[in-house]
Design a protein that fits this description.
The protein is an alpha/beta fold. It has one domain (13-132, 169-327): TIM Barrel. Helix content is 34%, strand content 19%. It contains 11 helices and 14 strands. The protein has helices at 13-19, 49-62, 84-97, 115-118, 166-179, 192-201, 225-233, 250-260, 283-296, 304-311, 326-336; strands at residues 28-31, 66-69, 72-73, 76-80, 102-105, 128-132, 136-142, 156-162, 182-187, 209-215, 239-245, 263-266, 273-275, 278-279. Helix 2 runs parallel beside helix 3 and helix 2 packs parallel to helix 9 (283-296). The two termini are 37 Å apart.
Length: 344
């Protein structure tokens, strides 16, 4: 029996038809917290090192094979971490609980950071790090954070642009390559394709290219079927495609990606609600729904080992323990087995 490649032209009708019923396992990435919202938006959103590690563990047991992390400043939980030692503490705590999960740290960071501060996570040796490809312009209202939460603040209106340029993106990619960290290429609209091709021309990235289409973010492409198809048509050969949708668009965008054979990102960074008017109880709840959806659509859920092989990563991080407990293994296996409904 011929094994079909896990990367192809996702929007090509004939390649799609060839793969119906034979799609590869879906990689579920859980974006656990983000760099802006906190418990004022959802009490389940993790902020401290232990909260992040616990939330990752729950998402991992539910079926996530990759976790996207925004470390927070321990002295100011509403602010992003700006030093490598904080990132080391977070990554170490995560890997102590989930030895083989793919750790994906952000270089997008949060408001007010310098470019060098955004790079501090890389020395903590994540497997993957996000790499924004274009300027990041946003305007939004952040709800008030009341006491007794740490660092209370009134309602805040953000209106700023993070000025990523060709030079900055290349310098980030060069640092990642030197440290053996795989970039997750964040494209918000079709302009990101120009930057991807520039990175390939400079030999700063290697296939399989791990590319996320971010749908529904301000100044990104509108979260529609047509726009998703246009974005994936422009991906270079050798791409693995991950899709995220913000807020109410998370479920339709990730469903579309699963149908087309892509991979998905869910989690409290992108959506603090489970359904309209109902806050999500945890990151694990959002991952569990993605697992159920994958099984209903006839797709297996990738284990961390499978995801590592698909992405061209080492079988396990050097610091990982050789195995997890038999109880954890059984729970994780049940979440990923085809046709098994994971509980909320």
């Amino acid at each position: 029996m011929t094994t079909l490649p896990t990367s192809w032209r996702y929007a090509d009708a004939f390649e799609y038809l060839e793969r119906v019923g034979k799609m590869p396992p879906v990689i579920i990435c859980c974006a656990v917290n983000g760099g802006i919202q906190g418990k004022e938006s959802n009490p389940a959103l993790p902020e401290t090192v232990d909260e992040i590690a616990d939330s990752v563990d729950e998402a991992y047991r539910a079926g996530a094979s990759m976790v996207h992390i925004h470390a927070r400043d321990p002295a100011h939980q509403t602010r992003p971490a700006t030093t490598t030692d904080v990132w080391l503490a977070v990554n170490t705590a995560v890997r102590a609980r989930c030895p083989d999960i793919i750790v994906n740290d952000t270089t997008g960071g949060g408001p007010g950071m310098t470019m060098e501060e955004r790079l501090q996570c890389l020395a903590a040796r994540p497997d993957v790090a996000s790499l924004n490809l274009t300027p990041d312009m946003s305007k939004f209202r952040l709800r008030a954070r009341p006491a007794p939460l740490p660092d209370p603040h009134p309602e805040v209106v953000y209106d700023e642009c993070v000025p990523f340029s060709y030079h900055l993106v290349s310098s980030f990619a060069r640092r990642m390559k030197a440290l053996g960290v795989k970039p997750e290429l964040e494209t918000y609209h079709t302009g990101g394709g120009w930057v991807i091709r520039d990175l390939i021309a400079q030999q700063l990235i290697e296939p399989p290219y791990w590319i996320q289409t971010v749908m529904g973010y301000q100044t990104s492409s509108l979260p529609t079927v047509d726009n998703v198809l246009q974005l994936v048509r422009e991906l270079p050969d050798g791409s693995l495609w991950l899709c995220s949708g913000l807020g109410v668009h998370q479920l339709p965008m990730t469903t579309l990606a699963m149908l087309l054979g892509g991979h998905v990102r869910v989690g409290l960074e992108d959506n603090v609600y489970y359904r309209r008017g109902e806050l999500a109880a945890s990151n694990a709840q959002l991952v569990s729904r993605a697992v159920r959806l994958a099984h209903e659509l006839g797709r297996e859920v990738a284990t961390p080992r499978q995801a590592r092989a698909m992405l061209g990563l080492p079988p396990a991080p050097a610091s990982s323990a050789s195995s997890v407990s038999s109880a954890s293994s059984a729970a994780i296996g049940a979440a990923r087995a085809p046709g098994t409904a994971a509980g909320r």
